[in-house]
Fold this sequence. Notes:
Low-confidence stretches: none
Structural class: mainly alpha
Order of helices and strands: HH
Radius of gyration: 16 Å
Number of helices: 2
Helix content: over 70%
Mean pLDDT: 94
Largest sheet: none
Distance between the termini: 17 Å
Amino acid sequence: MALSKSVEASLQEAESHLRNALAFAARQERPIVCSQIAKLLTDIESINSFDELLNTLDSTLNEQS
């Protein structure tokens, strides 16, 4: 089951806002703040990648049935 369009759009929007926050943080915040924002970005990207992987797995299993 793929992510719904609304969830995908929300994740893309969150990713965009976090990239903007990271750009500002890189100029004036402590390194730990930048690190945590980067971790959030990585987690969002992981959601998309993991969902694609699960879709591929589902497709493969359905073809074998």
